Amino acid sequence: MNDLQEQLKDLRDIHLPDPVSVWPLAPGWWALLIGIPLLYFILRIIFRRLMMPKYKKLALSQLKNIAANFAVSKNKTETAGEISLLIRQALVAKIGHAEVAGLVGEEWLAYLDKLSKTHAFTQGAGRYIISAPFAKQADVDIDELLSATKKLLGKL
């Protein structure tokens, strides 16, 4: 027993390790801090694309077709008429026939400006959508008109 007590005297006290500090964060926490917001934004973009209204997808697709047809035919009058018709159809699908059908002329252009939050229709190339479809030869910048229409359809 004496031998056991001598051995116990030789033992040192238990030393606890230093407490774990919060900083610097472990790599896993950094991955979570960056990954969760990134995942949120990626899923949000995917959800928006999947839930985009069908009329909007169709309208944007039709606008691409109109641009491709113009690249081949170079017919400004026909293209302006197609764009005018496309805008009217998209807005009837989105807003309804009762509100959109009665708008003509400057009132129609002002309404399009209000929706697109620009002045592309009352002051820019968009002005020609009310007269170009009926003109024998349209003098309109179709690229600017296509751009304004794309912005408008994007805001729907």
Strand percentage lies at under 5%
Which secondary-structure class do the elements indicate? mainly alpha
In helices, the fraction of residues equals: 55-70%
Head-to-tail CA distance between termini: 91 Å
Instruction: Spell the H/E element sequence.
Output: HHHHHHH
Could you give a short description of this structure?
By secondary structure, the chain is mostly helical.
Blueprint (SSEs and pairs):
Elements: H1 2-10, H2 27-50, H3 54-73, H4 76-94, H5 97-100, H6 105-116, H7 142-155
Helix pairs in contact: 3-4, 3-7, 4-7, 6-7
What attributes does this structure have?
156 residues, mainly alpha, 7 helices, rod-shaped
Describe this structure in words.
The structure is a single chain. The chain has 156 residues and is mostly helical. It has a domain at 61-155. It has helices at residues 2-10, 27-50, 54-73, 76-94, 97-100, 105-116, 142-155. Helix 6 crosses helix 7.
